[in-house]
Amino acid sequence: MKLRYNYRLYPDPGQRQMLAKTFGCARVVWNDALAARKVARKMGLPYIGDAAIQRLVLTQAKKTPERAWLAEVSSVVLQQSVRDLNTAYKNFFDSVAGRRKGPKMGLPVLKSRHDHRQAARFNANAFALTGDGRLYLAKIGQVEVRWSRQLPAAPSSVTVIKDAAGRYFASFVIDVPDTVNRLPELDTEVGIDLGLTHYAILSTGEKIANPKWLRRREKKLARLQRGLSRKQKGSKNRERARLRVARQHAKVADARRDFLHQTSTSIIRENQTVCIETLQVQGLARSRLAKAVHEVSWGAFTRLLEGKAARHGRTLVKIGRFFPSSQLCPCCGRQNGKLPLEVREWDCPSCGEHHDRDIAAAINILTEGMRIIGSSGSTVAAGLAGHGINDCGGQVRPGEATPTLAPPATYNAQAA
Q1: Which residues does the annotation mark as catalytic?
Q2: Cβ atoms within 10 A of the Cβ of 36, count?
Q3: Rg for the chain (alpha carbons), in Å?
Q4: What is the pTM of this model?
């Protein structure tokens, strides 16, 4: 299993200048290789192989006056840039042929020097960890690193990143065995219903508040954006204003990332089985709730749960998005049809139980997840005990009652 560890770097002015050259050379090599392959394709020539493209954009290019400055940076970084382009082409071809899972990949595109995020990758031949806790990079020197935790193993590569806020990071790739981070097995299960008012509602009755990271900084971001719009393009004042805006966005992203990691880690540590409903985030992001949907990052949260479950030996069950989790009564299994979003509580007309909409959905997600993995009914019942408003007692798994689409006879409406 390959893991990635990120650390903050603090290069001195000379090292920042060399890093800027390294970023620029890696970008130029990528663009040259991509342009050469595009020209060959337009002329009807065969696809240029990996070895041939390296000779063209590295060995031969360094001998020309226009590209002689490529020799000022580490050749390992430039070779790695060409390998990354080859990987991008391979992903595109595999995606077109159906050999690659996930969304369709497009052709590689040119990189712009005006992008505020730059990166360069160093493999094992071009970096080393020194005894005094610094990171040695070829032709750059020893860079100060803020070690927030120890590396579990020797890294195979490191990517140096400069983000839009002007911060530098070192991203190490670590190869560790699958059994290193396994946690002791537990007998607890949990279902998770994701939302906007509350970020996540657990089948145990716990509701995790939505911190609304972006909303907290909207006023300050709006003021900084207005100041940026008034600055003359190309001026130093505009660059300083852009950095102030980027730093505020970085604070929002850091707070969101920290919350997602802490929440996902807590759920994985406390439960052996986690059941979560998949959502069509792309579709929801085109609705009137687009801003709120983008802010909560449901997709990133699900990916974190999936990765940490694989690392720590937990089971993650994804429930299809068409499962009517918010329409079913967790006690008798009656399906009450689609309810308006403002209805947060309702009474089941069949069994008469009063339900909190979100907690009932989380219980139904857990029940469906345990059914999928073939768990026994007694285990599910034990996991659902003591849920307060939805603790009906008796049967938990919906029985053979015929579902109906009729709306409930009565329900208690509560503001969303």
Answers
A1: 193, 277, 358
A2: 15
A3: 27
A4: 0.82
